[in-house]
Write a structure and sequence with these properties.
homodimer, six-stranded mixed beta sheet
Chain lengths: 335, 335
């Protein structure tokens, strides 16, 4: 049997907490024998949820934490003051090496701060980027950085490119991933000061497959596998993609029920449209990893359901088995 | 009769030049008696196109320019060296006051450079932003700046907010337009250095209706009428919107013809979907204005057809009649 992966699951903070969190954990351990989940949160509530299901009891343990960080808490304060919250208790367990990683649907800002402050950055890593997998017309791209640390330096972006490449190759399984930098034109001389300074550094970097600039127009078509950008821009791209996709789908649906004839047509075409739009659902890849830390921190959507929870738990397993942090040390830091 | 608006139309540089350019001009002058169009480009080619149509001859004049700036030219070089190009000849006409504005489907970078260098910024205006109208689920928003001058200062962004407000109120007709700044969170303390410094300045600005931060997720839902941001981010947002909209529509179409049943359904629902997606077509508002210059420079899409050309010509008329530049002088510069 392969080595056990131990994952902390923050049971609280999501829209469907703790119900969907617990179900995700149950489904995950039923599927993988080498997975162990610490469900962290209010013991009584979690027990009630677990009682609903049959599952291998030896693979799940409840760790009691009475408090909860909500979306109304300010990140730094919450991490400092809510010591009994499920998120802080869970992050400490990763820090202490009791678990390989943590999965949370809670307050993004708090998780980003907590990941860096409590779990801690690997030695030599300047910044820990948040790197969600974003669906494209042809597959998926890793958009790195979408986190909370804005105004990055060129050397930060070079590390993002390297860490992102390792992740896409060994966790997502894309050989020799193409790395591009977000720019407002295809030529090397285009861009803002940050991009102009970073571009030649990426070009000179011999452990990535740098293909140059990526225009935002081509991003939804999968112009690169690893799309490097500063966090402010990445965050805007990620949220615009989410907002526009839901907005357009809403418009299409409105059109489909605007007349009786259209409604009949909609009934016939619905299933196929759903199937193709499923390609725009990235939850099968788990959540967004916060890379470069002494343990994997995975942010799942606030409205995550059990499927996303399960896949995020598996993601920590792949991350461990593929020895991603060891590879980061080796490739980036020459250790 | 109201005062004549004189507009230069750059006949070249677009994907459908000069055919669609000329037809756009013909349709425009047929509809508006108070519009005069100088079509600038190779005389023989334009004559051949004009010969196809009936139109009031006294409202169109050809201005010969033998050369053309293409999409392969680098902007600064092209403006400097291609003195006989339709774009440069046209920009000079605006500079000399022979026309109120220019409409061009040509090389965006060259038009932005040429607008600033040849037509020139108004006294007191620090930067001339490119401000396209972007369709939203509920209407349209002005995204300002999407131009080529990146790394803006806070004072630039304040002027963008003011000019954008005037434009949206008096050209597009939205009373007391809501102004928002693109940010990665709703709170005032969020953002990068530029946004943090600009936010209180916008808040203190008494001639705009500032509503605070706009998250990219809410942009497609029309979160603000005037959406202020630095050009790099604006350009990324504009192009991502275009790319994602076309990508999603492609996916939906694929789904609609994936099976025989779906194909029948698609036939029934097609018309209504088209109607609703039309709401995502901003060409009825003309092109993207470059604001703050001594004359209006309007960038239309490279693949613009006659409808967009016509509306952009009308746009210059509205801009003139509404005395936008006088209003900018009055509100921004206190003249």
């Amino acid at each position: 049997m392969s080595e056990l992966t131990k994952v902390v699951l923050d049971a609280m903070g999501g829209d469907h907490s703790p119900g969907e969190m617990v179900l995700g954990a149950v489904n995950a351990v039923k599927e993988k024998k080498d997975l162990f989940v610490y469900i962290v949160g209010p013991e009584e509530k979690i027990k009630l949820e677990l009682a609903k299901y049959e599952y291998p009891k030896e693979q799940i343990e409840i760790v009691h934490a009475q408090d909860e960080i909500t979306c109304h808490d300010t990140p730094v304060n919450a991490i400092r003051s809510k010591k009994e919250s499920s998120m802080v208790v869970g992050l400490h367990m990763v820090k202490e090496g009791k678990a390989d990683g943590i999965v949370s649907a809670g307050n993004s800002g708090a998780l980003l701060v907590g990941g860096q402050v409590l779990v801690g950055k690997m030695k030599g890593i300047e910044r820990a980027p948040l790197a969600p997998i974003v669906p494209t017309v042809n597959g998926v791209s890793l958009l790195i950085d979408c986190g909370a640390n804005v105004d990055a330096k060129p050397s930060n972006l070079v590390q993002f490119a390297q860490m992102g490449s390792i992740y896409m190759e060994h966790v997502v399984g894309i050989k020799n991933p193409r790395v591009g930098i977000v720019n407002i034109g295809a030529e090397e001389e285009k861009g803002n000061a940050l991009v102009k300074e970073t571009f030649p550094m990426l070009k000179a970097c011999d452990n990535i497959n740098f293909i140059g600039s990526v225009e935002a127009r081509d991003f939804p078509y999968g112009a690169a596998d690893v799309v490097v950008t500063e966090a402010f821009v990445g965050n805007v791209m990620l949220k615009l993609t989410e907002g526009l996709a839901s907005g357009l789908i809403k418009k299409v649906k409105e059109g489909m029920t605007a007349t009786p004839v259209a409604t009949i047509g909609a009934a016939l075409v619905k299933k196929q449209i759903k199937n193709t739009l499923k390609a725009f659902d990235a939850t099968e890849y788990g959540g967004a990893p916060l890379l470069g830390l002494n343990g994997l921190v995975v942010k799942i959507h606030g409205n995550a359901t059990n499927k996303e929870v399960k896949n995020a738990l598996f993601q920590v397993g792949t991350f461990k088995k593929q020895k991603i942090n060891e590879k980061i040390k080796q490739y980036l830091l020459g250790e």
